[in-house]
Amino acid sequence: MLRISVVLSIILWVLxxxxxxxxxxxxxxxxxxxIRHYGYTxxxxxxxxxxxxxxxxxxxxxxxxxxxxTHQVVFLQHGVLGSSADFLIQGPQNSLPFQLADAGYDVWMxxxxxxxxxxxxxxxxxxxxxxxxxxxxxxxVFDLPAMLDHxxxxxxxxxxxxxxxxxxATAALVLLSMQPQYNKMFRTFQALAPIGxxxxxxxxxxxxxxxxxxxxxxVSEYIGNGEFVPSxxxxxxxxxxxxxxxxxxxxxxxxxxxxxxxxxTDQLNKTLLPEIFSRHPAGTSVYELIHYAQEVKSGNFAQYxxxxxxxxxxxxxxxxxxxxLTKVTTPVTLYYAQNDWLSSIEDTERLAQKLSNCIGKVLxxxxxxxxxxxxxxxxxxxxxxxxxxxxxNKV
Length: 395
Prior knowledge:
The protein has about 400 residues and is α/β, with parallel strands linked by helices.
């Protein structure tokens, strides 16, 4: 944990001393602007969760003049520390939403509470600690159903295809196990680098966090007081200054970005780093990271561990209940990689065994393919996205 603090301190010092540094051209700031920048139609939608969070959705509607348009809905959900922008920054040639839009699908992208596009609440401010009192369970039981209900209402469709990266897959597993009625709304569920079981996760950050014996409240003080990530200003400066091509600090950026999830120098297009670091990490609660660390330690895919007293009060049992994956009856295809520090081969195959309707497992052949390569890998279209489209076209 000390090493992590040292790395973050170095980043802060460099940012403070290089504020006047040279900026390089970047894409427009928001997902809507990026979509329109590439000549596609874009929409923004807002959704309110039952507990008062205001979530932003981004849409690329099917082309009016596209004769091949299926009008079937594809919903994409971002991963840990991410946002809908993660899916877009490689542009039309290598980004999944554009590929799906070109194929005639009605493309929607969600944003979980707490990221840079979903930082509003009916009564709470993001400056209040209570705003950040959530983790991945809330993503599944509150955020996803609110967003999916809205998408189906607006589109007029009764079912949708779901594609979740990382935490986006976690949330869907939570939803479908806790509220099984949503299974009938999924045509397909394609999970990219899914995070379920984490016993074999190699992430040095989560492994270190999992060994801490302090209470979650005290641990949260080590990695953030409520919110996990730095301010939007710091993210922007980090992207534009620290991570520009040929910057002496670029290797530091790589180490920081992939400290949690691993990296692949063969697949990473370093010219994308300014775009990535201007938007990612996009914001989340410290309790989400603590929850993942708990699963590394326990080896279970279970609800948040509040301690013996807290668990008895909340769940009526000493241990938090496991998610009942047999209730996930929608057809699931799992995509996983050999060099993923969060979603290991062993844990993903265990997940496949627990699911009641796993129709496919796709292990990416590239040995160094990692967690973020499902978004930003140089060969991600050939390695992953073309396979996704084939699954969609079969339904």
